[in-house]
Amino acid sequence: MHRDHIGLDQAPARHTYTPPSARALRIGLGGPVGSGKTATVAALCRALRTELSLAVVTNDIYTTEDAEFLLRNAVLPPERITAVETGCCPHTAIRDDISANLEAVEDLEASLGPLDLILVESGGDNLTATFSRGLVDHQIFVIDVSGGDKIPRKGGPGVSASDLLVVNKTDLAPLVGADLTVMARDARHQRGDLPTVFTSLAAPGGVAPVADWVRARLDAWRRR
Amino acid sequence: MPDRTPAPGGATAVLLLLADGRFPAGGHAHSGGAEAAVRAGRIRDQDDLAAFLTGRLHTTGLTAAALAAAATAAATDPDPDRLDDLDRAADARTPSPALRATSRRLGRQLLRAARAAWPHPALDRLADRHPRGAHHPVVLGTTAHAAGLTPAQAASLAAYESVNGPATACVRLLGLDPYRVAAVLARLAPELDAVTAEAVRAAEQGDLPAASAPLLDILAEQHSTWKVRLFAS
C-alpha cells in the first residue's frame, strides 16, 4: 500500500513522542545486497547537504562498513551518521521491531537540533524487505540491472509498493544483457502509478532523479 | 480439582504477549553474551548451550528476576524514589560498563513499546526520570505493573528472557537444530520456575541477590570492542 493512503500525521509519529511538526522527514532506502543503496545515500548527501540539514542511519548486517564508507568519503560529518546493529535480521530492525532505529533517529535529532531530512539505509536484504510506517514516512527501493532484468517482474513489497523504485547501474545494462524497456514495463505493471527511475550513479549527477523526488517529498512534508 | 479459572483482566494473555519474542522491545538484536561465547569456543553444540543457559539463568537471570519483581511492587508507589533506588541497585549489580549500557538501552526500548501498549503514569515517570533509559529489569517490572501483572509474573518474564534470547541467537549463529534448542529450553522450564520463586522470595524480603557471572562480564567487554559482529551484545 502506498504511504499516501494514510494521513501524514498518523503512524510515523505515534510512538516517538515527538510532535510530527517538530521532526525531520524520514526516508528509508532498502534493496538487495550490492544494488547501490550506500552509493545512493552518499550521492544524495552530496547533492542535498548544501541546501538541507540531514543525517543518516545505517543498518549493516554484521559490520559498520556502510557507516564507515560514508565517513571515509566524507559525505557528512561523523556526528551525522549513526550505525545500528541488527542481530542477523536486517529486515526485523526496519519492520517488526524498529526500536533501535527509532532511537537512533531521535538521538540524531536531539543532538544535532532541528533537521530537514533523515535517511535510514537498511542492511542489504532480499526482495521481501520493507520499512515499517512507524519508522519512515517514505521508502525507496533500490535494485540494479546486473541483478537480472526479471527482478521487477518478480515483484515483492519493495518492488511493488515502495514510494520510489530506483533501477541502478543502467550503464551496465548492455554488458549484462538487461533490457531496460522490459524492466520499465514490468515495473509499471507491478507498481501502477508509483514512480520508477533509472539511474547510473557512475555518471556525474546520476542521482538527480532521486534527489528531485526527495526534494518534492520534503516540499510536501513542509506544506502539510 | 485444578483451578481452571483464567487470571483476571486478561493477565495470562498479557504475559504471553510480553514474553513473545516478536514483542517489539529490541531484544532481537542481542545475544546475551552468546555471540562472544560462541567465538571463544565455549558454545559449540546444544549441550554447551544448555550449560551456558543454566549458568546465565542462575546468575544474571536470578538477579534480573528479583529486580523485576521488586520493581513491580515499587511501581505501585506514586513516589518514584523506590524505582530509582532499584535502578541504582541494578547499576551496582552490573560491573561491566558494556552490560550496563546494554541494559539501559533495552530498558529504553521496552519502555517505548510498553507506553504504546499499556499507557500508565508509572511508565511516564520512568521515562521522564531516565531519558537515556532505566535498567531493563526495572522497566520490565514497571511494565508488568502497568499491564496488570504480578511481581511473580514479572520475575518469570525476566527469568525466561535471560535464556530465550541467547538460545535464539545460537540457532542463528551456529545453525543449531532448532528442535534441539527448543528441547533444551523445555528441559529448563522447572529451573526457570524455581529461579522465579527464589527471586520473588528475595524481592519480598528486600534482600536482592547479587549473583553475577564474571565470564559474561568479561565476554561482554570484549564483544563491545569487536569491529565485526552480528549482535549488539
Q: Mind explaining what this structure looks like?
A:
The complex is a heterodimer of chains A (224) and B (233). Chain A has helices at 11-14, 37-48, 65-72, 90-96, 99-112, 151-154, 157-161, 173-176, 180-191, 208-223, and strands at residues 25-30, 54-60, 81-85, 117-121, 138-144, 164-168, 196-198. Chain A has a seven-stranded parallel β-sheet, sandwiched between helices. Chain A has one domain (22-223): Rossmann fold (3-Layer(aba) Sandwich), CATH 3.40.50.300. In chain A, 47% of the residues are buried. Chain A is of the alpha/beta class and 224 residues long. In chain A, helix 3 (65-72) links the parallel strand 2 (54-60) and strand 3 (81-85). Chain A starts with 10 loop residues before the first helix and ends with a helix. Chain B is mainly α and 233 residues long. Chain B has a single domain, classed as Orthogonal Bundle (Urease accessory protein UreF). Chain B has ten helices and no strands. Chain A binds chain B through residues 14-15, 17, 61-64, 85-89, 92-93, 96-100, 102-103, and chain B through 22, 24-31, 105, 108-109, 112-113, 115-116, 169, 172-173, 227-232.
The helix fraction of chain B, in percent, is 55-70%
Q: CATH homologous superfamily of chain A, by name?
A: P-loop containing nucleotide triphosphate hydrolases
Structural class of chain A: alpha/beta
CA-CA gap between termini of chain A: 20 Å
Cα end-to-end separation of chain B = 46 Å
Number of strands of chain B: 0
Mean pLDDT of chain A: 87
Largest sheet of chain A: 7 strands, parallel
Briefly, what CATH class of chain A? Answer: Alpha Beta
The CATH architecture name of chain A reads 3-Layer(aba) Sandwich
CATH topology of chain B: Urease accessory protein UreF
Shape annotation of chain A? globular
Taken from the alpha-carbon principal axes, the silhouette of chain B is: globular
**Helix-strand topology string of chain A:** HEHEHEHHEEHHEHHEH
* Helix/strand class of chain B: mainly alpha
Instruction: Say which CATH homologous superfamily of chain B is assigned.
Output: Urease accessory protein UreF
Main sheet record of chain B: none
Helical residue percent band of chain A: 25-40%
Rg of chain A to the nearest angstrom? Answer: 16 Å
Query: Count of helical segments of chain A?
Result: 10
How many structurally independent domains of chain A? 1
Main location (chain B): cytoplasm
Region (Disordered) (chain B): 73-101
Subunit structure (chain B): UreD, UreF and UreG form a complex that acts as a GTP-hydrolysis-dependent molecular chaperone, activating the urease apoprotein by helping to assemble the nickel containing metallocenter of UreC. The UreE protein probably delivers the nickel.
Family (chain B): Belongs to the UreF family.
